């Protein structure tokens, strides 16, 4: 049985979970469930990123000790992950003692590629990112994501020699040995790589105390991204454990805004450690609200918990995995969501299940020993992480079953007493529905389970619709 390792980005715990965080979790969860469905052994990491100035300053602003602040918020993220039905196997907090210890060991292993130098330049605390002069000039000194002027830093830091690995990373990306999805992001990353200077990987304690200590230097802590990226392997026990059973990761899910860290600094760290590069980096787009970035100041932030409370988890997963394009930016609006719920979930699928189960029950049709196959079209799309397209394909099949019922009119066969034709027609329709349900299981597992229960053995129509209209 093949081992598959799936990872998600770990969100900063400087606020409550939002729709954007749900994207990473739902996509990675879909992948994990799909690989399990096709018989693989899956390990699936999730976690929280708890160091750095952004978090430290927020705790200070609220007057809460930072240790307590991260505990409170990490719990909110854990609750959120459970609410989303994420089937993770490992959860890591970057403040876990074991993670901090392993990060220290990783740093020491990278020593040959680390040197100390002065950093004079710009920083954005919102992005937790060192900003080049070129970017500073292009953005007129203001971060467009956080609407805040970049800060000027002059400090003694440790640097990581990206230059030692540039060539190897470029080759791995070009040859798809570390595949970047979607394809069009590859070019952007190759350009960024070409212009990438060595990166600063520590901050003086005088500027930032809330981080993992740098080994053998009491005056420095690790730059938050170094400790954050390491989570993908410390969670497996590296470097104390042999991780070759699980590493390299099959797929790492990240938002397009943080692909640069995963496609440049992360592979450089891995190469420095003598570890293989991940097979695929899947970078998803952003969820927008009415075409705009969601932001507290604009007041257009959509609360995922409200969406789930209104229509249930599977309706949430349905919308975000099908109507939010896996790779591009997509819009959330309540109108679009309600339309999809009523027309697609309630009508196309909910009514289909009700209709078929009622007909089967009335005519004494029962299913046994069904052999369910996944179609090649579906597995082809899923293997390439084209989730929204695979979901569209499954939905076409659902609409196809509805059309078949209208054309084949099983109720007429019943009226005419054509018992064997009726049985063959119903069994073939139900078999197709069960196939579709299997293909839905990585996306909307709860619904898929309900459908299987309804049509397993003696068929009983559900007492309440799968997706009640409001
Ligand atoms: N802590 C880092 C990630 C470290 S991974 C080693 C971070 N955290 S974050 O909280 O800012 O973002 C976490 C994830 O949420 C990222 O993948 C990011 O792209 C995603 N999203 C945040 N807002 C988003 C949207 N509006 N839409 C979709 N995803 C976005 O970056």
Task: Give the gist of this structure.
With 470 residues, this protein is an alpha/beta fold.
Describe the fold and architecture.
- There is one protein chain.
- The protein has helices spanning 19-37, 53-62, 66-83, 97-109, 133-138, 166-174, 184-195, 224-234, 259-273, 304-311, 313-323, 334-362, 376-383, 387-408, 410-415, 419-440, 445-455; strands spanning 3-8, 41-48, 90-93, 114-124, 129-131, 142-143, 148-149, 151-160, 179-181, 199-200, 202-204, 220-222, 251-255, 280-284, 287-289, 292-293, 330-332, 366-367, 457-458.
- With 470 residues, the chain is α/β, with parallel strands linked by helices.
- It starts with a strand and ends in a 12-residue tail after the last strand.
- The mean pLDDT is 95.
- The site of 5'-O-[(L-methionyl)-sulphamoyl]adenosine (MSP) has 19 residues, from helix 1, helix 8 and strand 13.
Number of β-strand runs: 19
Whole-number mean pLDDT: 95
Helix/sheet category: alpha/beta
Helical content (DSSP H or I, runs of 4+): 40-55%
Looking across the biggest beta sheet, what order are the strands in? 3-2-1-13-14-9
Evaluate the radius of gyration: 25 Å
Low-confidence spans: pLDDT under 50, at least 5 residues?
A: none
Question: What is the topological layout?
Answer:
Layout (H helix, E strand, L loop, with lengths): L2 E6 L10 H19 L3 E8 L4 H10 L3 H18 L6 E4 L3 H13 L4 E11 L4 E3 L1 H6 L3 E2 L4 E2 L1 E10 L5 H9 L4 E3 L2 H12 L3 E2 L1 E3 L15 E3 L1 H11 L16 E5 L3 H15 L6 E5 L2 E3 L2 E2 L10 H8 L1 H11 L6 E3 L1 H29 L3 E2 L8 H8 L3 H22 L1 H6 L3 H22 L4 H11 L1 E2 L12
Parallel strand pairs: 1-2, 1-13, 2-3, 9-14, 13-14, 15-17
Antiparallel strand pairs: 4-5, 4-8, 6-7, 8-10, 11-12, 15-16, 18-19
Helix pairs in contact: 4-8, 6-7, 8-9, 10-11, 12-16, 13-14, 14-16, 16-17
């Amino acid at each position: 049985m093949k081992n598959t390792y799936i990872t998600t980005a770990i969100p900063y715990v400087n606020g409550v979970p939002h729709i954007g965080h749900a994207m990473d979790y739902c996509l990675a969860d879909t992948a994990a469930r799909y690989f399990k469905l096709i018989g693989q052994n899956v390990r699936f990491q999730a976690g929280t990123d708890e160091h750095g100035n952004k978090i430290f300053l927020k705790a200070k602003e609220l007057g809460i000790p930072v240790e307590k602040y991260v505990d409170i918020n990490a719990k909110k993220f854990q609750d959120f992950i459970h609410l989303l039905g994420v089937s993770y196997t490992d959860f890591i907090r970057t403040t876990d003692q074991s993670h901090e210890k392993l990060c220290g060991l990783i740093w020491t292993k990278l020593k040959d590629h680390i040197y100390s130098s002065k950093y004079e330049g710009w920083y954005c605390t919102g992005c937790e990112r060192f900003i080049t002069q070129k970017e500073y000039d292009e953005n007129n000194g203001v971060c467009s994501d956080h609407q805040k002027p970049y800060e000027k830093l002059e400090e003694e830091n440790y640097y990581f020699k990206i230059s030692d690995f540039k060539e190897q990373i470029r080759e791995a990306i070009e040859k798809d040995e570390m595949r970047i999805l979607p394809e069009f992001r590859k070019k952007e990353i190759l350009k960024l790589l070409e212009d990438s200077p060595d990166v600063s990987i520590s901050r003086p304690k005088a500027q930032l105390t809330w981080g993992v200590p740098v080994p053998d230097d009491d005056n420095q802590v690790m730059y938050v991204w170094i400790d954050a990226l390491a989570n993908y392997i410390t969670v497996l026990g590296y470097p104390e454990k042999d991780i070759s059973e699980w590493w390299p990761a099959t797929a790492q899910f990240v938002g397009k805004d943080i692909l640069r860290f995963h496609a440049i600094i992360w592979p450089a760290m891995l190469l420095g450690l003598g570890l293989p590069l991940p097979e695929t980096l899947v970078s998803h787009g952003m969820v927008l609200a009415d075409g705009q970035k969601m932001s507290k100041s604009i007041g257009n932030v959509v609360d995922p918990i409200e969406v789930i409370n209104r229509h249930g988890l599977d309706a949430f997963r349905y919308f975000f995995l099908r109507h939010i394009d896996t790779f591009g930016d997509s819009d959330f609006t309540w109108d679009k969501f309600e339309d999809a719920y009523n027309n697609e979930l309630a009508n196309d699928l909910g009514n289909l299940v009700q209709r078929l189960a009622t007909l089967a029950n009335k005519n004494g049709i029962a299913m046994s020993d069904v052999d369910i196959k996944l179609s090649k079209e579906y597995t082809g799309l899923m293997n390439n992480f084209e989730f929204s397209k695979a979901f569209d394909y499954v939905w076409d099949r659902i609409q196809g079953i509805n059309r078949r019922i209208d054309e084949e009119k099983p109720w007429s066969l019943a009226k005419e007493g054509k018992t064997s034709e009726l049985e063959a027609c119903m069994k073939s329709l139900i078999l197709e529905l069960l196939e579709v349900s299997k293909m839905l299981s990585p996306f909307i597992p709860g619904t898929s389970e309900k459908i299987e229960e309804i049509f397993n053995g003696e068929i009983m129509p559900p007492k309440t619709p799968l997706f009640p209209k409001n």
